[in-house]
Amino acid sequence: MIKKIITFILEILCSILLFSLVLIFIISSKVLNKDYILSTLNKNDYYNLLYTDLIEKTESNLIELDLDNETVKSLFDFNKVKQDVNSLIEGIYNNKNIVIDTSSILNKIDSIIDKRFKDNNRIPTEEENKNINELKLNVKNIYESEIMIHKNMIPKIQKIVSLINNIIPVIEIVLIVIIVVLLLVISLINNGVHIVKPLLTSGFLLIFMYILFKSKFMNILLLSDGFNKALIAVFKDIFKSIIIYGIILIILAISLNILFKENIKK
């Protein structure tokens, strides 16, 4: 009786650890994978949506200049927007200094304003220069906030990503070692291999997680449409992997169970 209770407790513990290991592996292979994130942004039209959103916000901010849509578009280079986003991702994952250069945008604004004053054969007053500088600062802030989303949070995010990247491999190794030790202890207690129940239980835990939580992550509304679309795509991939690994573990458990029974019969 005591042996069965100990075995049951160890199998439950082993199942939870195996479930945690698979979950950590799935999430880290997505969220902590720079190339995956860049690919997801590209697949989900993030750059185009960001570019459109940037133009709309800038256009409303420059309303006093009475600029048409094409002129506002000319302020921004789509390739530069994409490059700045990619530089941001690169900086976050590799803990590098991130610099978003807005000088080309501000120079274009200066050119438009200078032309307006020249066409009217006059120079801006001190008050007008002050307004122009404020306007340029607003555009600069819009661009940086659209690219970086939360500028002040970037250094903290870099530290967190760096820390997690260093810790995850250690955690995975520790979990694997503990799982192997538990399986060996269970096998020694019962004089035979006992891996089926932990595999089966962890597989069902993954499937239950998929059923219970997937729908809750599919209607996220946090920031811009582009960001929400990319974030939902990441969650979809995570939950897709969860259900796949859950099914694989269950099939593996059933297959091993059949194999062990066949060996016993022989």
**Outline:** elongated
Separation, N- and C-terminal Cα atoms: 28 Å
The tally of beta strands, per DSSP, is: 0
Biggest sheet details: none
Structurally, the number of domains stands at 2
Helix- and strand-based class? mainly alpha
Low-confidence stretches: none
Alpha plus pi helix count: 10
Q: Roughly how many Å is the radius of gyration?
A: 28 Å
Helix content: over 70%
Taken as a percent bin, the fraction of beta residues is under 5%
Mean pLDDT: 86
Helix and strand sequence = HHHHHHHHHH
Task: State the gist of this model.
By secondary structure, the chain is an all-alpha fold. It has helices spanning 2-31, 34-43, 46-61, 69-75, 78-94, 103-119, 126-148, 154-190, 196-213, 225-265. The model has no long low-confidence stretch (mean pLDDT 86).
How would you describe what is shown here?
With 266 residues, the chain is mostly helical. It has 2 domains: 2-31 and 156-265, no CATH class; 46-149, no CATH class. Helix content is 81%, strand content 0%. It has helices at residues 2-31, 34-43, 46-61, 69-75, 78-94, 103-119, 126-148, 154-190, 196-213, 225-265. Helix 1 runs antiparallel to helix 10 and helix 3 packs antiparallel against helix 7 (126-148). It is elongated. The relative contact order is 0.14.
